[in-house]
Amino acid sequence: MKAGLRTAVALCLVTTLVHVVLVFLHVAPANPVSKRYSSQVNGWVYPLFEQNWRLFAPDPDSFNRKILARTAHTDSKGSVQVTPWFDLAAVDHSAVEHNVFPSHTSQNLLRRAWTSYVETHGGSDTARSERAVMLQTYLRNIAADRIVAHNDGGAFDFIQLRVVTLPVAAPGTAAGNRPPAPTEDRLLPWWKVDSHGK
């Protein structure tokens, strides 16, 4: 029993030390060690432990994004059933609104997944690197998990995202004015997912 406890404590300490060193190499200025082990550092840090300074950015986002998802399922007769669009961003917004202590996940997980997807894919939806494939899978899995959490048990095999980018209204804009026109309405391709909702 004592040997098992010592082994578990030693394993936790080693994991903590490795984590601290890898995150330090990620945020430290470029140096020979971080350059040599960049693939190992990035493999550990992305996407869960990513560090950035956007919280302190002088120009915060000037756009609101509605991230919508719909699913498709082929039934036993071979017909494809497609669900209506479901607003994932609205679910996040409602989880944060009127919550005194909203979680970081509710505020930023979906938004950061989309931002990272755009950074690696640009205007194309073709993944051209391992990191792009990883971030596409990450975004797909977040959307699928959110659909499952708010679904009534319906199964689906494919998921599609649509992102509508709207400019933030200028300060002092009257509430009765028409909403601003979307600056971008991007429809992503259908992605195959592990069967959900069964």
Overview of the molecule:
- This protein has 198 residues and is of the alpha+beta class.
- Helices cover 43% and strands 20% of the residues.
- It has helices spanning 2-27, 32-36, 38-45, 88-96, 104-121, 130-149, and strands at residues 63-74, 80-82, 86-87, 156-167, 184-187, 191-196.
- Strands 1, 2, 3, 4, 5 and 6 form a six-stranded antiparallel β-sheet that branches.
- Strand 1 (63-74) and strand 2 form a beta hairpin.
- Helix 1 (2-27) packs across helix 3 (38-45) and helix 5 (104-121) packs antiparallel against helix 6 (130-149).
- The chain is globular.
- The model has no long low-confidence stretch (mean pLDDT 81).
- Residues 171-198 are annotated as: Disordered.
What letter string, H or E per element, gives the SSE order?
HHHEEEHHHEEE
Approximate helicity band? 40-55%
The parts where pLDDT drops under 50 for at least 5 residues are none
**Computed structural class:** alpha+beta
In round numbers, the mean pLDDT is: 81
What does the main sheet amount to?
6 strands, antiparallel
Quote the distance from N terminus to C terminus: 41 Å
Shape: globular
Proportion in β-strands: 15-25%
The number of strands is 6
Number of helices: 6
Q: How much is the radius of gyration in Å?
A: 21 Å
